[in-house]
Q: What sequence folds into this?
């Protein structure tokens, strides 16, 4: 594609394959999709993924511009480079979709997810859970004599790691928001 | 309000069927004379008729149906239009807004059901947005890659009044796909054109959809470069079938020379086609040694199936114009010497004469029937529709299309029952023209009720039924791939088509002897009104050439048309 002089990572022409060839290796990408906040738009996006057999690892959506009625959908998906390019092109042709950004190839980006974890336990386990929470900078947002609810923010990997440690310490329930992401800089 | 908006969008015909949830719109239809309404006999028929109208005029087709069963009956047609990129605006009635979600009488989640088979759809909840939404719908249906859209209008929204927004005053849509191609990519393609030793141009429905100007530009490019050109089923007529560089259709039932040239080329220029599986066969063995360029308005079509070297996203007409401009400014160069030897190779493939057939004996061969139809109608102002099956492929092979918008067939979805209603739509748009539906008896029965529409609206459509008393295409696959176990592929208990025609109030003709065929066709043409011609043909004829699905091009079956030697030779070519 070098002859096309498309900036590496540009998604304006999302059909251009930016990699050297169609590899079979699956990659995980975080996509930011700006859409009109109209009825059914989320169903269109989800329907696209289920109808064409793509994966959704995580999906978040909320209105981000109240006057313009636009929402931002953040999708984490996995697939071969060819599939990822298809996903972007398919998203791009949904009529209420304004922009599709592949944060994974468009340069550095920041990704965060929030999770609430309920951990029940007594004695040493309870103390150990608090100590680990401190290391992970998780906050206690609710507490009873036998349980805590921790709030933790970070990358999905960090939340994974924390949840894994809480497992043997009495993890009861987890609620996660899914990933929100923004590209760095301008 | 609805009728006003349609009128302002230049609509002159609506295909529809009334019901409780659209009565206010039908009331509007009743009180005006600008827009004609064609009352079909089934909503699927309305959609296919609108497709025929759209395909043969380049204008969007308009459909009006009621809620619930009206809308669900339309779904097959809408899906057909989506697959073949046909611009349609479908208006459906819905139960009143305050009853949505209550399982009201004739309520269906139409917007939900059609989300996956429309380019876009809307549920209008406020009359103030109705006219604006209709204008937006026409814009979306006809802009970029065309397709069907649907507007679901609850009955209370139809009854309420609001100020009308004209198309000029409607808010401009943010949906504005790119039409100009990337100039660097176009230059790269021009360089490839100049250097190519074994080029081929492979065109698709996108050339037709781009408009007549695109077909003219294609002809200029083909004729001035001397490159061979082939086309998908959907693209027939963009380059004339009598043109000197025409190789015929490619793909599963395409011509030997077209498929071989695709396989052996060193430069493939795909113009408005989408590397469908009927074209590529086995993807991993598809044209292994060529540089591939792809011009398409839909970015998701590019690199979807086949990885291409020169992707150009834009409207075919615009891109062809730029290609020609740059190529001419650089002196219209091609490698003439290489082209000459490429053509001599192609001439060798042509000698196989893969479409040859012998009409012997007292039974009409379907190929012969189409050959005679072609001879006897060639000079007419002619539009051809088809159903789906062997007859469709034979029609594509044996009829000649010299102009775009003259060939209406269900390609992507392969919908049996498409052809008769489509012919109704075509004839509405072209009342003076000769409109023929080349049909199989089984497909034709699927929407035969539309014969009533043809009679009512005095549409002299000619139903040319190649009656093999078989689901021929299914039978062929069973013969070749399922050990000749003909499971459920017989057309049993067929009606007497002549009596059926009489029952509908039109003319019926039956022919079963090659000697009487010409006369029967002439009689069909001479009759001033709709005709059903029941042409009894050979029951076990197979459609060749054929690339069995999942096989590469070198597994092409040539049937009776070739000898053992030729197959050996073709195999050698492919090594
Ligand atoms: C609605 C629908 N159902 C089933 C099929 C599968 N199918 C493809 S061709 C065919 C047989 C068509 O028979 P006929 O119309 O008589 O045409 P012939 O092949 O005999 O020319 C069938 C059943 C289809 N394409 N569409
Ligand atoms: Mg048949």
A:
């Amino acid at each position: 594609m070098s002859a096309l002089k498309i900036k590496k990572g540009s998604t304006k022409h999302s059909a251009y394959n930016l990699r050297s060839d169609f590899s079979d290796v699956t990659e995980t990408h975080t996509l930011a999709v700006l859409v009109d906040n109209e009825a059914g738009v989320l169903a269109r996006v989800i329907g696209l993924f289920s109808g064409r057999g793509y994966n959704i690892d995580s999906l978040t959506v909320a209105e981000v511009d109240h006057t313009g009625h636009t929402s931002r959908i953040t999708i984490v998906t996995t697939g071969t480079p060819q599939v990822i390019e298809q996903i972007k092109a398919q998203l791009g042709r949904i009529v209420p979709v304004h922009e599709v950004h592949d944060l994974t190839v468009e340069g550095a980006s920041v990704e965060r997810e929030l999770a609430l974890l309920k951990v029940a336990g007594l004695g040493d386990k309870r103390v150990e859970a608090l100590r680990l929470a401190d290391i992970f900078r998780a906050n206690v947002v609710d507490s009873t004599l036998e349980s805590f609810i921790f709030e933790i923010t970070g990358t999905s990997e960090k939340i994974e790691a924390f949840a894994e440690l809480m497992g043997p310490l009495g993890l009861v329930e987890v609620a996660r928001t899914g990933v929100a992401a923004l590209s760095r800089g301008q | 309000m609805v009728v006003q908006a349609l009128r302002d969008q230049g609509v002159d015909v609506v295909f529809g069927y009334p019901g409780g949830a659209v009565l206010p719109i039908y009331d509007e239809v009743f009180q005006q004379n600008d827009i004609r309404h064609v009352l079909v006999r089934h909503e699927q028929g309305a959609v296919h008729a609108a497709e025929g109208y759209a395909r043969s005029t380049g204008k969007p087709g308009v459909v009006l149906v009621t809620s619930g069963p009206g809308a669900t009956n339309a779904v097959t047609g809408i899906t057909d239009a989506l697959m073949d990129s046909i611009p349609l605006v479908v208006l459906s009635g819905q139960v009143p807004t305050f009853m949505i979600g209550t399982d009201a009488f004739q309520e269906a989640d139409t917007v939900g059901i059609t989300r996956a088979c429309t380019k876009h759809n809307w549920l209008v909840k406020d009359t103030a947005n109705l006219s604006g939404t209709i204008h937006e719908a026409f814009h979306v249906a006809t802009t970029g890659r065309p397709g069907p859209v649907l507007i679901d209008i609850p009955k209370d929204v139809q009854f309420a009044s609001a100020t009308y927004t004209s198309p000029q005053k409607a808010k401009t849509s943010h949906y504005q796909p790119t039409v100009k191609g990337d100039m660097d990519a176009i230059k790269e393609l021009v360089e490839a054109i100049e250097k190519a030793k074994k080029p081929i141009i492979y065109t698709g429905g996108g050339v037709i959809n781009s408009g007549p100007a695109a077909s003219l530009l294609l002809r200029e490019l083909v004729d001035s470069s001397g490159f061979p050109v082939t086309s998908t089923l959907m693209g027939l007529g963009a380059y004339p079938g009598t043109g000197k560089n025409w190789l015929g259709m490619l793909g599963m039932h395409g011509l030997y020379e077209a498929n071989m040239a695709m396989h052996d080329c060193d430069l493939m220029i795909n113009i408005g086609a989408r590397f469908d599986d009927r074209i590529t066969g086995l993807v991993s063995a598809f044209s292994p040694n060529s540089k591939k360029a792809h011009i398409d308005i839909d970015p998701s079509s590019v690199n979807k199936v086949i990885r291409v070297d020169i992707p150009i996203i834009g409207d075919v007409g615009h891109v062809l114009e730029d290609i020609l401009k740059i190529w001419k400014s650089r002196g219209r160069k091609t490698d003439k010497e290489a082209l000459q030897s490429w053509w001599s190779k192609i001439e060798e493939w042509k000698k196989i004469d893969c479409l040859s057939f012998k009409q012997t004996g007292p039974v009409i061969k379907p190929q012969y029937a189409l050959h005679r139809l072609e001879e006897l109608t060639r000079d007419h102002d002619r539009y051809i529709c088809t159903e789906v099956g062997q007859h469709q492929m034979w029609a594509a092979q044996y009829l000649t299309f010299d102009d775009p918008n003259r060939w209406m067939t269900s390609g992507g979805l392969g919908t049996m029952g498409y052809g008769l209603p489509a012919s109704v739509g075509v004839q509405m748009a072209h009342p003076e023209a000769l409109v023929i539906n080349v049909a199989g008896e089984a497909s034709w029965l699927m929407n035969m009720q539309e014969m009533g529409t043809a009679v009512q609206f005095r549409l002299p459509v000619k139903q040319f039924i190649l009656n093999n008393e078989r689901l021929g295409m299914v039978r062929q696959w069973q013969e070749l791939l399922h050990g000749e176990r003909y499971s459920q592929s017989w057309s049993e208990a067929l009606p007497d088509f002549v009596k059926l025609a009489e029952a509908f109030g039109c003319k019926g003709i039956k022919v079963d002897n090659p000697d009487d065929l010409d006369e029967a066709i002439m009689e069909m043409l001479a009759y001033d009104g709709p005709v059903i011609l029941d042409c009894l043909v050979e029951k076990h004829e197979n459609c060749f050439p054929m690339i069995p699905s999942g096989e590469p091009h070198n597994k092409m079956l040539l049937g009776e048309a070739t000898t053992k030697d030729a197959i050996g030779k073709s195999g050698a070519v492919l090594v």
